[in-house]
């Protein structure tokens, strides 16, 4: 037996103003999307904004349903929207933010497991890392330079 220690790397920013002007714009798009979320059941609104390699921003938010499992996360709404409109364009970055009606979201909101797997599919497909920025309503911003940092041992189609 031997131990394997797997490392993930993240950058931490104290404030949005530490980011480039382009990334601040992406953050604002994620906030705008978040504030249009349909989340009457959880009262937890998530916004995701993608920067495509052609410079365009595509955003999405969580869409809930009275039959709870029929809802969808912001990240997958955004990614599927982007890929359905621009199937051959690579995703450079993704920015995620969230807000709750119940309490202040002070720490970064990272994508759920299913969203990580979905992001992994497209990162593998585009053969180029996708940066993932995530934050709460307030507080620090974390940045992963690849989905791999969020999903070690990812299942991907190179196994099939
Ligand atoms: N949610 C997202 O949109 N993204 C995530 O990564 C985590 C959770 C949504 C799903 C649901 O509408 C609400 O947040 C509470 O789980």
- Strand line-up in the sheet with most strands: 1-6-5-4-2-3
Strand segment count: 6
User: DSSP strand (E) fraction?
Assistant: 15-25%
Order of helices and strands: EHEEHEHEEH
* Mass-distribution shape: globular
Helix content: 25-40%
Q: Kindly, what is the distance between the CA atoms of the first and last residues, rounded to a whole number of angstroms?
A: 27 Å
Uncertain runs: none
Name the average pLDDT.
Answer: 97
Pairing-aware structural class of the strands and helices? Answer: alpha+beta
Hetero groups in this structure are:
tetrahydrodeoxyuridine
Main sheet record? 6 strands, mixed
Task: List the total number of helices.
Answer: 4
Radius of gyration: 16 Å
Written description of the protein model:
This protein has 160 residues and is an alpha+beta fold. It is built from four helices and six strands. It has helices at 21-34, 74-85, 113-126, 147-150, and strands at residues 10-13, 44-52, 57-61, 91-100, 131-135, 141-144. A six-stranded mixed β-sheet has the order 1-6-5-4-2-3. Strand 2 (44-52) and strand 3 (57-61) form a beta hairpin. The model has no long low-confidence stretch (mean pLDDT 97). Bound molecules: tetrahydrodeoxyuridine. Tetrahydrodeoxyuridine (THU) binds at residues 39, 42, 44, 46, 62, 64, 71, 73-75, 111-112, 115.
């Amino acid at each position: 037996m031997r131990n394997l220690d797997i490392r993930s790397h993240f950058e931490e920013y104290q404030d949005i103003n530490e980011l480039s002007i382009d990334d601040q714009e992406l953050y604002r798009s994620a906030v705008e999307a978040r504030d249009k979320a349909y989340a009457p059941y959880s009262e937890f609104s998530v916004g995701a904004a993608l920067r495509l390699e052609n410079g365009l921003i595509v955003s999405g938010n969580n869409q809930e349903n009275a039959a709870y499992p029929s809802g969808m996360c912001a990240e997958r709404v955004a990614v599927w929207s982007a890929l359905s409109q621009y199937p051959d364009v690579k995703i450079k970055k993704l920015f995620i933010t969230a807000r709750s009606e119940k309490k202040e979201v002070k720490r970064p909101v990272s994508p759920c497991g299913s969203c990580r797997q979905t992001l992994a599919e497209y990162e593998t497909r585009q053969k180029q890392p996708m940066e993932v920025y995530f934050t709460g309503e307030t507080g620090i911003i974390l940045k992963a330079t690849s989905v791999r940092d969020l999903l070690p041992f990812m299942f991907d189609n190179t196994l099939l």
